[in-house]
């Protein structure tokens, strides 16, 4: 066995040893989305209470959107 083969074999074994001794702790984290709230209609729309005011009231209640539908402020989430 010549010197080049010995060096190649030694480096290969050292590489395998280094890889096997390295810490490969990989853990998967599941993402749990919060439950979506059902569409609910709260206030009467009209006058100064428009789509923007309805939207502004729905956001703090946990909804994505809010708009006036059939004269009432309805809050809903994206599907």
UniProtKB/TrEMBL annotation:
Keywords: Antimicrobial, Disulfide bond, Fungicide, Plant defense, Signal. One of its GO terms (biological process) is defense response to fungus. Pfam families: Defensin. PROSITE patterns: PROKAR_LIPOPROTEIN. It comes from the Eukaryota. Residues 39-76 form the Defensin-like domain. Residues 1-28 form the signal peptide. Belongs to the DEFL family. This is (rape) hypothetical protein. It comes from Brassica napus (Rape). The lineage of its organism: Eukaryota, Viridiplantae, Streptophyta, Embryophyta, Tracheophyta.
């Amino acid at each position: 066995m010549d010197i080049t083969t010995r060096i190649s074999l030694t480096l290969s074994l050292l590489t395998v040893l280094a890889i096997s001794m390295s810490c490969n702790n990989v853990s998967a984290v599941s993402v749990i989305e919060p439950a979506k709230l059902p569409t609910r209609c709260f206030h009467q729309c009209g006058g100064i209470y428009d789509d923007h005011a309805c939207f502004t009231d729905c956001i703090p209640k946990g909804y994505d959107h809010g708009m006036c539908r059939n004269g009432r402020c309805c809050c809903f989430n994206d599907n």
